Amino acid sequence: MGNTHVDDPYTTPVKYVKKIGPRRAEQLGRLKIFTVHDLLYHFPREYLDRSKLVSPFDRPGGETVTVAGRVLTGQDTRPRKNLTLTKVAVDSPQGVFYAVWFNQPHVKKLLKPGLRVLLSGKLERGFGAVQVQVQDFEIITGDGAALHAGRIVPVYPATAGVTQRMLRFFVHAALERWGNSYREFLPRRLVEGENLPELPEALWQIHFPENSTEAERARRRFIYEELFLFQLRLAMLRNNYVKMEKPHRYVIGRKLHEQYLAGLPFALTGAQERVVAEIMADMDSPHPMNRLLQGDVGSGKTVVAVLTLLRAVESGLQGAFMAPTEVLAEQHYLSLSRSLAPLGVRVAYLGGGMPGKERRALLEQVAAGEIPVVVGTQALLQEDVEFHKLAVVVIDEQHRFGVRQRGALQQKGACPDVLIMTATPIPRTLSMTVYGDLDISVIDALPPGRQPIRTYFVAPEELPRVYEFVAKQVAAGRQAYVVCPLVEESENLDLQAAKDLYRCLADEELRGCRVGLLHGRMKRNEKEQVMYDFRAGQIDVLVSTTVIEVGVDVPNATVMVIIDADRFGLAQLHQLRGRVGRGGGPSHCILAARLRSREAAERIKAMKASQDGFYLAERDLQIRGPGDMAGVKQSGVPEFRLADLLRDRDLLAAARSRAMAVIRSDPALTAEENLPLKFYLQREERSRRSYYHIS
Ligand code: ADP
Ligand code: MG
């Protein structure tokens, strides 16, 4: 011992664990296991209860049992080509039985006569013979505990080349060597108050539990740990902003603001006015704004974004507007440059794949403060993008970005005011805890005059009639979208499906219409051209993959046809439908699908029943049921290792109030009882591989 660099499980590479060589270490890397700590925090996904030893002579056939005995003899036979049967005779107090394996000839060599073994597997009985078809076994060596049988056995997320037996062995070896190096870092008061098992003990119990109660307690501890650390970070973030003083101040007059409003063809809704007032109040405060603006699809968030940006422009400062996709960023760019040109406000676009020379020239002007508003994609985050005086950051469709990207854009200015906009209706039950560091504004009403979107369900056979309907709408001067699904297994198939559909519509079903195609892998200028033509009415029907899912705004489009609608989640369907119903004309959404599952049928039913994004979000979670994190992921909340935000709602709330209490009473974590926590966070910050993935 005393060899400090390998005593610390957090930094010791996993190859220092007994029996792990370079090749295994590489395979473990695929499970994101790099250090001893990663290995010990690779928790079982379930357990098999092999704790009760029975006599195979007392149990009926067909049961899965765990039995013990002494090896007598073994033999391999080959009853068929490609089949090796290993049969080992085992002695037990009630008589001799047989253990069998298929195609595992190596076990015969391991199971030498005289060895004591534990065997788990399926019991088979016939004509007086008793045999166990072995799933897992263990030789009892007398030193150390059994890992694979004769106990509650952990089952891990595994990967090619790494078996359950290996993982159990590695974890056990790591626990023996490093388990006791762990020190509890959660505050004592919390551990006692919540009755959580302490660290080294909890690690043992989650991997090799004495009984199922202890396993459950240990799991609860790690879920709590995960949620508490998450909430603690949010509380600290928030505490930081609240304390920060921003260097910039805004001018009092709002000339541009008034001018812009006067130029709009409509008046703000009451809901828009209210959120604008909330934002302006934040901006007038000496502390930076950190506000989430939630508003359903089509509720008019863009106008609010522009007013926020104009506040900076008016004061001689700069604003940045970031959107998740090129299509969306370009659309914002076009609409902003159009509406701000009359006010004499310059707007620039910064996307990926911009020619180097053009880009450099643009960056220079931005850095010199000559361009007050920059719209772009994640390209805004690149290191060489510098601002002269960045005061306002607006991020559209937050669920596509993580907390880290948000932070990166914030870094481009000195305490800029940040507005995050999302149309993803995070269920109210979750948003408080998940966006705990932000203030929240909600646009809770749509602009007036919107007509409900009629939503229909059709079987694929009925599509020809649907296209006839589309053609009629086009003849009446309207435009339509036809969305084909993303084929997840293959981007190429996906693209091919879109191209095939496009050809079929352009050449046959919709021959009389001008049909366009938009997909994710077109070049930027090609996409731009298609969107431009569609907006300008040069294209009647736009066939598209889901790239148009977020934010596209073409008011004259009144028909949305979604092919294979059963493949989309509710949130996505709602987003897609939100592309129509924007112009005040009657709009239609046609969902074509074959309903192969109950869930799909429920989703279609919900779509027909409601147009309220919040309702649909809650409904989505109900349909999926707790445990299906995919649903939660779509709502834009981070992924956790063990915690399930729905199932563990109560723990989340408890962890949140504990975390806030800690930060309220000891914001810098300097109190004696919080020091271990502080060191823990500092170390994690250093290793920058936090075990939940925010982004
Ligand atoms: P989203 O919140 O989905 O981003 P947009 O900002 O794209 O919504 O607005 C949707 C449409 O509603 C746009 O065509 C916009 O011009 C229009 N709009 C926004 N506010 C109003 C309003 N107060 N009255 C009428 N139309 C509005
Ligand atoms: Mg939008």
UniProtKB/TrEMBL annotation:
SMART domains, A to Z:
DEXDc, HELICc
> Molecular function terms in GO for this entry?
3'-5' DNA helicase activity; ATP binding; ATP hydrolysis activity; DNA binding
Q: Name one GO biological process term.
A: DNA repair
Name the Pfam families on file: DEAD, Helicase_C, RecG_dom3_C, RecG_wedge
- For this protein, what reaction is catalysed? Couples ATP hydrolysis with the unwinding of duplex DNA by translocating in the 3'-5' direction; ATP + H2O = ADP + phosphate + H(+)
Q: Does the keyword Nucleotide-binding apply?
A: yes
SUPFAM superfamilies in UniProt:
Nucleic acid-binding proteins, P-loop containing nucleoside triphosphate hydrolases
Q: Which UniProt keywords apply?
A: ATP-binding, DNA damage, DNA recombination, DNA repair, DNA-binding, Helicase, Hydrolase, Isomerase, Nucleotide-binding
Q: Where is the Helicase C-terminal domain?
A: 462-622
Domain (Helicase ATP-binding): residue spans on this chain = 282-443
Q: What does this protein do?
A: Plays a critical role in recombination and DNA repair. Helps process Holliday junction intermediates to mature products by catalyzing branch migration. Has replication fork regression activity, unwinds stalled or blocked replication forks to make a HJ that can be resolved. Has a DNA unwinding activity characteristic of a DNA helicase with 3'-5' polarity.
| Family in the record | Belongs to the helicase family. RecG subfamily.
PANTHER family xrefs: ATP-DEPENDENT DNA HELICASE HOMOLOG RECG, CHLOROPLASTIC
The protein's name: ATP-dependent DNA helicase RecG
- Give the species this sequence originates from: Desulfoscipio geothermicus DSM 3669
